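Run: sequence + adenosine-5'-triphosphate -> complex structure.
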Amino acid sequence: MRAYGRRHRRWNRRNPQPLLVVPDEPLTLVVLAAIGRTLFRYRSEVAPVFLALVLVVVGSVLHHSRPGAWPVVTLVTVLAATVAVRGWPWGLTRSAERGYATTTTTLTGGWLAAATALGPTRSPLPTLLILAVVALGVPWWAHRRRRARVRVDRVINAWPNLAEQIGLAGSRIMSAVVDTWGWRARIKLRPGQSVADVIARVLAIESALGTRPGAVRVERDPAHAGRCTMRVLAADPHTGAIPWPGPTSRSLADPIELGVFEDATPVRIALLRRHALIGGTTDSGKSGVLNVVLGNLAACTDVVLWGIDLKGGMELRPWAPCLARLATTPDEATELLADAVAVLDARAHASGQDNTRVWKPTPAAPALVIVIDEYAELADTAPDAVGHAESIARRGRAVAVDLLAATQRPTQKAMGGGALRSQMSIRVCLRVRERRDVDLILDKGMLAAGWHAHTLDAPGKFYVLADGHNQPRRARAYLVTDDLVRQTAARYADQRPDLDPLSRAAIGSVSLSADGRYAAFVSSERHGPGESPAHARGQMSSRPSAERPLP
Ligand SMILES: Nc1ncnc2c1ncn2[C@@H]1O[C@H](COP(=O)(O)OP(=O)(O)OP(=O)(O)O)[C@@H](O)[C@H]1O
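>> structure
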């Protein structure tokens, strides 16, 4: 074979074959068509130069036909720049892009007005135009999203050929969207093809698109068996820290975005009427996850936040402006949880009287979320507090008193032999040191089912088990920097709601019972004759003495 190849090449060198082009059309036409095709293919790249040429032509026409029209051109420029500042009509959301659009519009219109009055060749207009093309062209050519969009456009154009090569002939791309991590396309399959055919050809698609291995994911379209979504990840979302984009929820009823899965889809969890457990070894990113949750809850106007941080407030104190209470000692923690049980009892009692089964959080009657950093520490140092926590875990959901506990050591003892854990319907498992911790944090059998949290290799990476998240998919939490924590806490501090009067009164009625334990007394006597508890909710408005200021 090799000998034949060498002989063949030698023969070719001795008998060179002239390259014959025998076009059907005249050569000029063929060349023009080739230039046209190239310009069309690279239309996005040549856009700045093309725009400059259009300006010269329009400027010259206006100068010769209506040189007095420059004030009109100026006025139109001002109007267009005003529109561009707001990001219209391109739907620009980033301030840098809006700034670029405004500058380009202003310079373009300004140059055209000058060219209309003086002529496009009058010095220094040609020099200014060349300088502007270079200065505005560089950010245009370098713009990541523009380049990504162009690449996607080319894939869409080439798809019919690619599809034929990879065995999906007849399928077509209906639409495509470029985002931070790559792009996503909706594909219409040929009748008879199914999403299983596409999934079976993922490796071929990656090869045809020239992506890195593992970059293509295919999801079925729940509404149509002949359609699917193809996700192409230009970059692995988990390679570096992912900056927190800011709060995505304004109400506890909105799902909270914790981070992103490996396929760049967001991890959304609903906290309303759910308790959450966040477990992981030291430095695995537990406080990071708590920060994302707190950043979102701080922006919700229907949640009152209480915190317990027995590391002297090290982790939660930065959120103090948004926390109605913060306990940093075992005694304070016990008192805080006892008060929460009192709130729970009062609400349960009121709901029983009203025949309302659940407490619907509103800014006037907010939910109560208690965030506990290092739950195992609490279990060790404040055994009384554990009873209250378990009571809240068992009964708090219906009356919107929720627990959010992070723990480094999910021991049987800390978890109350599993009683507390079984009430936590959201489990976030960060890196663990020992394999058996996976089952302790998530549930029995989860390690065997593929939830391999011991293999997570960077802080903030986690598995989540919750409603709608029943598969072991790796995710990474957003990183909220210390500065962002401070900014977010300061921003939402004055928008925090107060507890409703009923709950505040319940805290006021907590007293130490004979056996030294806290007890809450919520009786119908507190409401006037004929008043329902709901009525009382609206009437008792004074801040109870038991609601303590932050230490
Ligand atoms: N989502 C994340 N992405 C990138 N880095 C992170 C993320 N979360 C945390 N880190 C980094 O990991 C380190 C430890 O994070 P964190 O303090 O949240 O861990 P922890 O589990 O609470 O630790 P400890 O158990 O000691 O309290 C920090 O330096 C932090 O910057």
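>> summary
Residues 511-551 have pLDDT under 50 and may be disordered. The longest helix spans residues 330-354.
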